[in-house]
Design brief:
single chain; alpha/beta; Rossmann fold; four-stranded parallel β-sheet; 53% helix; 7% strand
């Protein structure tokens, strides 16, 4: 089991293509992914607000599959730390508290400004944009990374996706580095 631990913020679990890639890599042991019930609630609430066509049952099934696919992903017992933490957005303190209790090395988030280094460094944690995080994982285990991307793309059957479609979907998820790297090896996807 991987020891490098990433707490996945709700912002990176919102988009299915990004969520799938993060989870596939974690499920295959590239890194250890963690989150909380509250983080689940946040991404699911945001998705219901922007996509009312997605029903709660489907989201609940996705949540349950995520929890089953990644061993020891759920963090609890972090709530007592929340009041003592300081962040620009006080509503994000639960994320940092969970990262501390879950012994995360990194918080993967689009909201970097909400997790400044001066608040995270004392806890041995840093915040990374998902594109940077994924690109780093890619450089460590490139063949496994490509294999994970290929497996995800091949699972997309309704409708089926070409390698170009899949790369375009990742680019639209604000992952330009990953899209560019996969473009170079798209024949393997």
């Amino acid at each position: 089991m991987a020891t490098f631990t990433a707490l996945l913020d709700a912002s990176v679990l919102y988009s299915a293509p990004l969520r799938d890639l993060l989870l596939e890599l974690a499920a295959t042991g590239v890194y250890r992914a963690r989150w909380t019930v509250t983080i689940h609630e946040e991404w699911m609430r945001s998705l219901r607000e922007t996509r009312p066509d997605i029903d709660g049952i489907s989201l609940g099934r996705t949540r349950d599959l995520m929890d089953a696919a990644v061993p020891d992903c759920l963090i609890d017992g972090y709530e007592d730390l929340i009041p003592a933490l300081k962040l620009p957005d006080q509503d994000d303190r639960h994320v940092l508290a969970a990262a501390i209790v879950g012994r995360a090395d990194v918080i993967v988030t689009f909201n970097l400004k909400d997790f400044p280094a001066d608040a995270l460094t004392p806890h041995g944690i840093e915040a990374q944009h998902p594109d940077e995080f994924l690109n780093y994982q890619r450089t460590l285990v490139e063949s496994r990374f490509i294999e994970c991307a290929r497996e995800i793309r091949q699972r997309l059957v309704n409708p089926a996706r070409t390698a170009d479609d899949y790369i375009r979907a990742l680019r639209s998820c604000q992952l330009p580095m990953i899209a560019a790297e996969l473009e170079k090896v798209k024949r393997l996807l």
